[in-house]
Amino acid sequence: MAKELAKSYNPSEFEDRIYDFWLKGNYFHAEVDKDKKPYTIVMPPPNITGQLHMGHALDETLQDILIRWRRMQGYSALWLPGTDHASIATEAKIVEAMRKEGITKEDIGREEFLKRAWEWKKVYGGRITSQLKKLGSSCDWERERFTMDEGCSKAVKEVFVRLYNDGKIYRGNRMVNWCPHCCTSISDAEVEYKEQNGHFWHLLYQVKETGEYLEIATTRPETMLGDTAVAVNKDDERYKHLHGCHVILPLLNKEIPIVCDEHADMEKGTGVVKITPAHDPNDFEVGQRCNLPIVRCFTYDGHLTGAKDVEEYNELKAKGQLAENEPEVLDCGKYAGMTTMEAREAIVADLKEIGALKEVEELTHDVGTCYRCHTTIEPMVSKQWFVKMAPLAKPAIDVVRKGDTKFIPERFEKVYFHWMENIKDWCISRQLWWGHRIPAWYCDDCGEVMVAKDAPEKCCKCGSTHIHQDEDTLDTWFSSALWPFSTLGWPDKTPELEYFYPTSTLVTGYDIIFFWVARMIFSACENMGSAPFKTVFMHGIVRDENGIKMSKSLGNGIDPLEVIDKYGADALRFFLATGNTPGNDMRYSDKRVEACANFANKLWNASRYVHMNIDDHDVKNELPKTLTMEDKWIVSTLNTVAKEVNENLEKFELGIAVQKIYEFIWDCYCDWYIELVKTRLSSDGEDAQNARQVLLYVLDQILRLLHPFMPYITEEIWQTIPHEGETVMLAKYPEYNAELDYPEASDEMKKIMDAIRAIRNRRAEMNVPPSRKAKVYVATKFADTFKDGTQFIQKLASASEVEVAESFEIEGAVNIVTADAKIYIPMDELVDREKELARLNKELEQVKKRLAQSEGKLNNQGFVAKAPEAVIEKVKGQAAKEREQIALIEAAIAALK
User: What is the spatial distance between Cα 798 and Cα 756, in angstroms, rounded to a whole number?
Assistant: First the structure.
């Protein structure tokens, strides 16, 4: 490690070196230590397909701040990292690579495909991990996990079998969200609703018994081929005469019943709705209530069904292998093989031709899309595996209501409760090969279903050896739902599980409450009997400078690695921390990151100044026995900051905490204390040595306070100053000490600083250069305090001399008032009155001229009518600034007269 600081701050010269130092020292590793309190965070596992983006950078920075803080407080702090196998995304990557080779999954078979998948994971899966290290993440890499590693796979099988045996997992034909592009089902939480322009097609269905026509509006006319009824409300007087009647389905000339169901809303449209149980979730429920047939007219890859699909259905029927609610399959005739969009166009044209299309109405509506590929979701009745959510949801709701798990900010508890109280059964099967294969086997001879952790050798019912495993895999979230305890060794009773569980804090974005947070809570309640974490710290998302969500399609994403290359990891981390308020979004700003780098540079230069004053002296890193007023002020202020920062961190107010540290370092230490002690440092003897000790002690405490937020620069500087221990990351975090509280001395110093600040401001207003000295008279009842501070006023307020008394009578002086003193400075010593008046009057004339031009534009109706709003607002802003300038100049002129 470096023993002296380089002349200039250049993070690229030391950040990688320092991270390597931390790794070699094994400082990130946490052990079971009964003498310490545990503090545990499990990292939300990024996908192995992923690359570091600003969302990751924010999430990992917040976690690292918390874990470094607790580690420095003496906790056995475990930050457990890992990655997610990301079934859909990873399989899509591999399939795309194979497509370029001219082969498909089916060409090479499942076993060979999985070999390719594991090889892909080996090559690319660690990319995100190495990127997290660039950010400074202090994870316990020895404990890194993967959702498909041996231990996690064991936990997945254990949970699946337990839930199945308890009747909480079942297989059946139910309505699911189907992605025709990914060719798999996805859960309700994985559907993203996007506003799209569409149409209401108003169709006419003729009533068989009366000959009249019923008008039915639909946004998906292609589904009409699967209609098995139309519904009216039983209380709707308009249609009571049609109860028990039938309509003729256009195009198919098929007779379907008119049923009564509350789904038909008398207040909406005509009050008549078409019922397609195979392709609409609400219609499916109507079909169940009214015992309607379920007719599927779409294939699972987004086309309309034909003769071949019917043939396959009939084969299963002949073998007796159709399950409950298995949809019938329709031969769609001329529309067979068309995509749903092609069929929509053709069906609408045919309906128009036969007079069954009354009108087309434009509308804007929310359309469900796949969260991965953004393809429009097709609701489909499909045979899938489901988790019964009702018995799992109640305990998960209770642990949050009782406070066992708290959400920060609290408002997200309402979101959580709403979702959990209205949750539907969770579809957990996916039609993919990469992932946890469902541990269920089927007998080819008798159809028996066997669910077990290990593959059975024969059918448990008939003894046949003709058995095969379910082809589907589990939803990725099924395994990540077990993350807080599977990563600690469950289902085995390991020392780590006993010590580190339940975990302390989950840090995550508000956008995955449903995907992940809720599922972890109910999974832990079911399998561990307790909540998985004590606190859920929700953060928002990082948007671009215009407040727009970053996305690949918009091309407005910011690569954190590029930011790190330009400004350093510390600057990026500091920006992300300062902009953070729990649960709220933030905007990326390159200028603000640059400002954070400038802050680091200021700290660097201040540290070099400390070195200039201590390197040739034997300076102990401890406070001297004798402290001056300014020493007591800086030490007491530091003590207060340490107290407040710890309180803020306890409440997850990371942005407030880091702002207080920033203000202390920049304002109190760099801009004030270093300037206050320069005279002492240039002298000899005990007073100078005491100043050096305080300077060093406060710098050491600053580095500790700042370390969780800016780990690299603090380590680099800390290694060059006198210290005990191997690394600042294991040094004790500053905390409040009543013995270091000096309220009286601090108050006295603040009085003097207020006076200096007021004098500086007035001189700046009057454009008096610092080189022009003037005598300062201080009238105050705190004479002793200000007499002790005369040296500071002389040095920092450009005073040629300072006189202190209870009162003064001075004519022709500038008056400056603070809360504790009235200050007089002879006008003639500050400025040449006549020259200054001439300058101010000339400036006043110029500003009034500019204001007249601005107001002329705003009073010009032609300008206001034609100019863009932004231009008008800009002129208004200029006029406001010009009025302010005029007021200030006139006040300055009045002061001189």
Answer: 9
